[in-house]
User: Fold these one by one.
Assistant:
Number 1:
Amino acid sequence: MKHLLSPLDFSLEEVSHMLKLAQDIMKNQEKYSHVCDGKKLATLFYEPSTRTRLSFEAAMLNLGGKTLGFQSADSSSASKGESVADTIRVVSCYADICAMRHPKEGAPMVASQYSRIPVINAGDGGHNHPTQTFTDLFTILELKGRLDNMTIGLCGDLKFGRTVHSLVNAMKRYPNVKFIFVSPDELKIPQYLREELTNEGYEFEEVRQLEDVIGNLDILYMTRVQKERFFNEDEYIRLKNSFILDERKLSLAKPDCYVLHPLPRVNEISVEVDNDPRAAYFKQVQNGVYVRMALILILLGLDKQFDI
Ligand code: NCD
C-alpha cells in the first residue's frame, strides 16, 4: 500500500503523472465526480488548519466520496492519552484513506506503520508538507510552463517552515534549479538541509535582504514566521516583521516573477500586492483542491481507469 509522507515518496515520473491528472481534473471536473462514490476520507487534524483540511474535504466531496474526522487533538481521544498508533488502527475500520496533520515530526510515518489504509501527511511539525508542495509544483508549472531552469527565492521562516523544507526537496530534483534563501540569521534553513544540499552539489545562496536578490528570481515563495514553533514569545515578536513584501519591493522583481505563499498570511505580504498580476497565492489555494483530488485517486488506485 502506498502512503504519502514526503514529496520524495513519489518518483519524478509519479509526480509528473499526478500533475497531469490534476490538470485533467481542473479541465474536466465532471468526469471525476463519481469516482469515489461510497469511499470515505478521514481527516485527523491534531493541529489547526483551514486550507489543508477544507481542501481535502472539498476534494473528496468533488469525487463523490464522504468525509469524517476531527479538527483538534482536544476533540479526539488524544486528549485522553491515546497513541497515534492506536488511533490509526481504529480509523482504519471507518475510512478508506486518511489525511493526518500533527505537531510532531514523523507522526504520520508512525501512523503509516500501523495503518490498513493509505496515510497522507498533511503537515508534520517543522518537517514536511507534501500535499502543499505538490500544490506549489502544480502552480509553478501552470504559471511558468516548466519546473526546471529557474531561480526560486524562499523568504521568511526557513527554519521552522515545513512547506519550505518540502518544496526544496521536491524542486532540487529538477535540472538547473537554484535556491536563494532569504531570512534573518535566526530563521535560516536547518543545518541538515544545508548539509544535504551542499553534499549533493545543489546550487544555493543564503542572504538577509530581499531587495538584494528579488530582481534575479523567477518565483518568490513567501512564508509566515511560525509563531507556534517558537520557544520564546519575545523572540517571535522580535522576528515577526522581518520581511514585508510590498509593491515597492515587488517593483524590483521581473515582470514574470510570481509570488507564492502557502498561506495563512499574517503581514509578510502587504494587501496592496494582492492586486498585482504576479500575486499567485489565491490561485495556489484553488489548485490545492485539484492536486488533492489527484492524490486521493492515485493512493486509492482509482487513477488507472483514466486515460490522460
Ligand atoms: C502551511 C502549514 O500548515 O505549514 N499552511 C498550509 O497548510 N497551507 C503554512 C503555515 O502555516 O504557515
Note: The CA atoms of residues 201 and 217 lie 20 Å apart.
Number 2:
Amino acid sequence: MCGIVGYVGKRRVVPVVLGGLKRLEYRGYDSAGIVYHEDGALKKFRSEGKLINLENSMEEAIGAASHIGLGHTRWATHGAPTTANAHPHSDCSGELVVVHNGIIENYHSLRTELVEKGHVFASETDTEVLAHLIEEYLDGDLRAAVTKALSRVEGSYALGVLWTGMPDTLIAARNHSPLVLGVHEEEGGFMASDIPPLLPYTDQVIFLDDRELAVLTAEGATVYSLESGEEVTKETKIIAWNAAMAEKGGYKHFMLKEIYEQPRAIVDTVSGRINPETGSVELPEMNLSDEDLAGIERIFLVACGTSWHAALVAKYWIERWAGIPVEVDIASEFRYRKLLIDERVLTVSISQSGETADTLAGIRLAKELGSKIVTICNVVGSTMTREAHGTVYTHAGPEIGVASTKAFTSQLAALFLFTLYLAEKRGSMEADQRLLLGRELINVAKVIEKELPILQNDIKELIEKFYDSRDFLFVGRGLNFPIALEGALKLKEISYIHAEGYASGELKHGPIALIDKEMPVLGLAPKDSVYQKSISNVEEIKARQGRLILIGSKGDEHLKTITEDVLYLPEIHEELNPILYTIPAQLLSYEIAARRGCDVDQPRNLAKSVTVE
Ligand code: F6R
C-alpha cells in the first residue's frame, strides 16, 4: 500500500521526507516521488522501483534549502508502476501537487468532466483527478478548494496537497485511508500514512478521522470537518512505540495486522465494481468481450496453496450461479496431465504475488492450447497479469506475513464478483438476486470488522487448552470444506502442528480412525443448507471423545450441548460464509503459533513468493 510523508518546519525537507519514506518501505511499493517548494516553484522528482533510484535521481537536491515538501511511495492500483504514474501529481499549471493513498471510485466520470473543461492529464492514475479538481475550484483559498473537490469524490483517500500560493502550508485530508499528523513546537509539522516516519522527531501525534482535513504549518495543525467546514478539536496523543512496533501499527506481528486489515481489503476489492442500484458488476480489466464470455463452455481454476483453496470455494459459486462447469487444479499438477483445453475453455489463475512459478507455467500452457486467460492477482504489473488476457485485481495491499490472510479473503471477494459478473453476462441470475448478493458481499466486511476483536479475545482464552497439541483436524461441508483445508494449512505452516482438513462427510471413510480423546477437531457448522449433516458428523466425533471446537451461528444453543468450546458468528447469507468463517481459523492458528513462540511472520522453510517450480 502506498505511503505518504509530508513535512513543514525548520529542517531541510528532503532528508526528512526521504528518511520518512524509508521507514514506510515495509508497506511495499513500486515507484516513489518527492516534491518540495523552492524559490516560488515546486521541484518534483519521481522514479520507478526502489527509493534508491529516487535518491540517485535527485543527488543535488538532497541539500536543497527548502523547508516544506511531500513524498510518496506508490503501490500501483490504477495504471502501471511507471514514472509517469508515480506521485506527486500536478494540476495543469504545475503549481499545485497532490499525493494520495486510496482509490477514487468515481474517477472515470470526474476525469471525463475535467477533460471536457480543458484539463490535460499526464498519467493513468485516479489520483491525478484530485489535482485537477482542486485546481478547478481554487480561487485563492486552498482549504476551501480541497473541501469542495473532496465533496465530489467517492472512495477512499489519504491526501497531501502543496500549492505555490501558500508556501508555508500543507493540506492533509482523510477518508478510509490512514493518515496521522505529528506536531512538535521546535521541529514543525508532519504528516504520514503511519507512525514510523514521525518517530525521530516527535512523539506527539494527531490521528485524523474520516472526512477530516488538516491545515499543517511549522506552528502546528488545525483540523476541520469536511462535512461542516467547522474546526474540530482533536486530542494530541503521546506515542510510546519503538520503531519496530510502529511498523506493525502496534500489532505484535504483521500477520495479526493483516488479519485486522481484512475488512478494508475486502471493501477496496469490491469498491466501485458493483453498481449499488442495479447490482451490475464492472470488471473492465478482464478484457473479455461479451462474445468471449458467451462462448465459455468450461472454466479451469489454477492456483497453489491458499490461492488454490480460494479456487475450491469459487467452484461452488460459479457452478451454482453462472451454470458453467468448473475444474480446479493445483498448478503443479495441472501442468503434468493431459489437458482437454481449447478455445472454449477459460483458464483463471489465482495468485497473490502473480509470480508463482507453477501457476505461471500453467497459464502459459493453457494459452498455448487456445484458452483465454484471466488472472485474479494482488500485484499490479506482476508477470501473471502481464501474460494473461485480462485481470481482476484484488486490492489487499502488500501482504508481508508469509502466511496469506488478507490476500485470501480478498481473492474470495474478487471471485464472488467474478461469479456475479459471469452470471450477469450469461443471464443466469436475476438482477434482484445479484443486487442482494452484492450487498451481502459488502456486508460481510462490516460483520468481520465488528467480530474481529471479540473473536480474538475468545480464542485467546480457548487456546490454553489446545496450543500444545501434536495434531489437529479441521472439518467442514460444502462451501466450508475449502475453509477447513485453509484453516489446517494456516495452523501447520505457522505453528508446525500437524493439521489436516477434511470434508466432514469423508471422516467415516478413514480419518475417523484418528479420533480419540487426545485429538482436537475444529468443526465449521453454520446454520446453512447442510447444517443437519454437519451436526451429524460432529456428533460422530463427539461419540469417539474427540476434543471439539465448534464454530457456528449466534443463537445456536444446540452446539453448546455438543462441546463447551463454541465460537459464535452472526448469521449472514450462506454464500458468503466462507469469507466470514476464515477469520476464526486464521485467528486460532495465529494465537496458537504466537503462544508456542513461533516466528509467525517468517515460518521456517517458507518464502512469500515461490518463484521456483
Ligand atoms: C499459505 C500461502 C501459500 C500461497 C502459495 C501461492 O499461507 O501463502 O500457500 O498461497 O504459495 O502463492 P500465490 O498466491 O502468490 O501464487
Note: The first strand starts at residue 3 and ends at 9.
Number 3:
Amino acid sequence: MNFFNSLSRSKEPVAPLEAGHVRMYTCGPTVYNFAHIGNFRAYTFEDILRRAIQFNGCKVTQVMNLTDVDDKTIRGANAAGVSLQTFTAPFVQAFFDDLKTLNIQPAEVYPAATDHIPEMIALVQRLFEKNLAYQSDDGSVYFSVSRLPQYGRLAHLDREHLRVGARVADDEYEKEGYGDFALWKAYESSDGAVVWDSPWGRGRPGWHLECSAMAMKYLGDTFDIHTGGIDNLFPHHENEIAQTEGATGKPFVNLWMHCAHLRVNGEKMSKSLGNFFTLRDLIAKGYTGREIRYVLINGHYRQPLNFTFDALSAARSSLARIDECVDALTELAASQKGVDASNACLAEFTTAVNDDLNIPEAFAALFALVRESNVALSQGAVKPQDAAAILGVFDKMDTVLGLVRFGRMQKEEGVPVEIQTLVEARAVARATKQWAESDRLRDLLASKGWEVRDGKEGQKVKSLK
Ligand code: AMP
Ligand code: ZN
C-alpha cells in the first residue's frame, strides 16, 4: 500500500508502528446539525481507507471524535435555549444512523469532547511547562506558534510573515491571518451555561485542543494515520501537531491524508454557503444509501468531486449492471462449491486500491469483470464452479467498496424496477429507524398491488394480483 502523505507531499509506503496493526484518527462531525453529503464524502473516503487496509490483511483501530463543544454547538444550544447535551444528542444519533445508511464501517472508538475536559486541561498544563502556552489579558490561554520551530510544516506556511504575538480566538480562520491560537477560551456571557473550571479560570477548550487530547489518549503520542477533509489541514491539523509535538517532543503522526471537497457548481458544499444536501434530503427524494455511496466513492479522493443528480441516476444504472451480472452468476453457482481462481481483474483491482486508493481504476477492474462475465454467460461458457469463483472475486472487491452486496434484496421473479426501488428505499428507512417513512412506503407498495413482508433475510415482496 502506497498512500499520498500531505506532510511530505509524496506517495509513501504504509509502515505501521506495530506490524499488522494500523492506528488511525479521523476528525469527526461537529454535532450542531445533520451532516451533509460533503461531510460524508470525507467519511466514505475514510471508510474506503479503512477497508483497503483490512483488505491488505492489517487490523485497524480507528478513533473518530464527536465535536460536541465548539463555537457552533454553543451558538446552536443557546439559540435553542437548551443545554449543550440536549442540543447535540439528537445530531449524534442521526450521525450514527446515517453511517449505517451509507454502509460505513463503525470506528472502534467515538470519544465525545465533553467527556475529555480533564485530559485537555492536562495537555495545556504540559504546554505551559514547555513554555509554549501563555495567558492573555482577557484570561484566554494561547499557543505561541513562534516558539515551535516546526509550526507551519504541514500547511507550508511562510514563517517570515509570522506576526509574533498576533492572536486568533476563533476556531476557524484563514492562512493569511495566522497567529497564536486559543487553547482555552475564557468564559464570555455568550457561552451561556457552557463552562468548566480550569487552573486559568472558567472557560472552555478550543476545538483544536480537543482532537489532540483525544487522539493521544486513545492512540498514544505517535500513531500511523490521521485523516480529514482538506479544509481541516489548516488551521486544525497544523494546530493539532503543534499541541501534541509541543507537549511530547515526539512526532505526532506518520501519515496525513486529506480528501478533496465535494462541490456543487464548482463551489465547496458547505453549511455556510447553503448549497448542501443532507443524506436525509436525498433519501426523501427516493435515492438509496447505496446509490449515494456509489456517487461519493466514485472518484479519486484527492480530486474534487462535483455533485449532480445525473451522477445519482448513473449510479442507479451502474449498480443495476453489477446486480444483473451477480444475479446471473449466483443462479449458476447455486449449490456448487467454488474453486479458488486467481483472477486478472482482482489483481488489477488490488493494484489500483494499493496505489493511493485509486477507486476509479478499481471500478474499471470491477466493470471489466462484469463485462467478461456477461460475455461468457451469454455464450453459456461459465461452469457453476467458475460462477462461484467469480462471485468470490466480487465479494473480495466488495470488502473495499461495500456496494455489491449492501442494501440489496433478493431479486424476485418479475418484480418491476419501480417496485424494487421502493422496496430498497424502505430498507434504508428501516435501517435508519424512520418507521413512519417505512410504513408510508409499505402503503404505497400496497396501493400499487404489492405486499411486502419483513423476514430474517430482509424484505420479500409478493404481487397481490
Ligand atoms: P465538520 O463537521 O465541519 O467539522 O466537518 C466534518 C468533516 O467533513 C471534516 O473532515 C471536513 O473536512 C469534511 N468536509 C466538510 N465539507 C466537506 C466537503 N464539501 N467535501 C468533503 N469533505 C468535507
Ligand atoms: Zn479534529
Note: Residues 262 and 300 are 11 Å apart (CA to CA).
Number 4:
Amino acid sequence: MTQQIYINGEYFSKEDAKISVYDHGLLYGDGIFEGMRIYGGKVFRLREHLLRLWESAAAISLPIPLDLDHLTADVNEAVRKNGLEEGYIRLIVTRGAGALGLDPFRCSNPQVIIIVDKITLYPAELYENGLELVTASTIRNHPAALSPRIKSLNYLNNVLAKMEGLKAGCKEALMLNHQGMVAECTGDNVFIVKANKLITPPKEAGILEGITRNAVLELAKKAGIETAEEPLTRHDLYVADECFLTGSAAEVIPVVILDGRSIGDGTPGPITKQLNDAFRALVRQ
Ligand code: PMP
C-alpha cells in the first residue's frame, strides 16, 4: 500500500504532501505534535495522546480546528488507509501560514498533519544488551522559558543534546534540568531501579510526561513493585541497580552505561526485563 499523508482532511502522496514556507511551524517552531504507536492495527493509548495534544495546544493558545472525536476518527482512518499493522504516527498541528513576523494571531489556518510510517529508533541488539548514555551539557529548557511539558515543534534543545550524545558515540543522551537534577533523555523518559524500588523523576523535574512512562508506572504497580516519582541526581543513576528508558518510539530499552560508568552489573536487570515483558504483553492486548 502506498503511503498517504493527511493534511487537513485530505490525503496526499509523500511527494505532494506540502505546506506553506510561511507556516509559523517552519518559521518559528510554532506548533505541537504527538508521536504514537500502532500495534496490531490499533493506536496505543490514542486518547491519552490526544489529551496531551490538547494540553500542549492550550498552553500555546493554538486552536485545534477539529474536535477530539473528529481527530480521533481521522487518526484511525489514516491508519486504515496506510494499512500498517505495526507502525508509528506523527501527528502535527502547526500555527499555519502568516506574515514574516512572530505574531501568531495573524496566522489563521492551523495545519493538521498525520503521517503514518514505520520506525526503528534503536537497533534490536541494544534492546538485548542495553544502551550507553552520556550526560549532555545542554540542559533541558528552563520551564519558565518553554515548559518541557509542551510537546512543541521547538526541539532544538533536544536536538543539540542528541548531537552531543551522537558525537560521543551514544544513541541517546541524558539531560539535566536547570537545577542540575536528572530530567529525561532527548526523546525518552528515564527510570532507575534501586533496592527493588522503581524511581523516575517527577513532572516538576522539567520532563515531558510520557504516555509510555505512565503505562510502565501502572504496570509496575500492578506487579507489586514499589514505585516513586522522585528527584534524581546523576549520582543516583551511577549507583542504581538498573536503568531504562521509555518512549513511544523507543518502547522500553535498558541502559547499561552512563558517562563511562557501568550501571549495576553492566547488563539489563531483572526488573527492566519484567517490565519490558509486561509492556510487550500490554501493547499486544
Ligand atoms: N521525553 C521527550 C522529550 C520526548 O520527546 C518523548 C517522546 N518521544 C518522551 C519523553 C516519551 O514520551 P511518550 O512515552 O509519550 O512517547
Note: The mean pLDDT is 97.
